[in-house]
Amino acid sequence: MKALVFLTLLGAAFVAAEDEKVVGGYECPRHSVPYQVSLNAGYHFCGGSLISSQWVVSAAHCHMSRVQVRLGEHNIAANEGTEQWINAAMLIMHPQYNSYTLDNDIMLIKLSQPAALNSYVQTVSLPSRCPVADENCLVSGWGNTSANGDYFPDRLQCLRQPIIDDRICRNAYPHLFTQNMICSGFMQGGASSCQGDSGGPLVCSGQLQGVVSWGYDCAMQGHPSVYARVCNYTSWIRTTMGSY
Description:
Layout: E1 5-6, E2 15-16, E3 26-27, E4 36-40, E5 44-52, E6 55-58, E7 68-71, E8 84-93, E9 107-111, E10 136-141, E11 157-164, H1 166-172, E12 181-184, E13 201-204, E14 207-214, E15 225-229, H2 234-243
Antiparallel strand pairs: 1-2, 3-11, 4-5, 4-7, 5-6, 6-9, 7-8, 8-9, 10-11, 10-13, 11-12, 12-15, 13-14, 14-15
């Protein structure tokens, strides 16, 4: 997984893809993002989104051999009594995932048992359409919150940010941006997803439109965060879920 570089939004150096965080955001109201999950391998390493009681969407670059999915979390360092910890039974990377370019950076995780849906654990809808430029969206995660260092919060962080026009994103990342990606954030920098947010949700109008994928140094001016474009994968997601 570290073999492929994640251009995290912070400086000029490349960072491993799993290192994305929310910079310039705020602590989410407790359990206000009930579809957000933490992927754990003895430590939090990526995020994900619950799309049914037994399936999670994350990023393909978050693939590990053993994963525990933690649901109902807010403070991942404390036992708050709302958590459900369920082992992954199966991790299915998109068959066209390219670990060099991060094209098709999406993965499905089947839980070993269904999650109990309640006020702390809920699903998010798959997109019925693709996002549009300037649409207001929410990104969340437990990733790094410092653009100039390392600070990984225990409490879930949120950030409201717009979808960026594909032409602007293509100019920001020539030869890297593909039709399977979307950009969201602020061209002036100062706020973005970052290390540790990878695989997590970008939700617009109640629909999962993006999966945190990559970017240049966190919150870097002129280089917004890049997400897998979930609307391109709804057929693959539904077919895969129906096959296992």
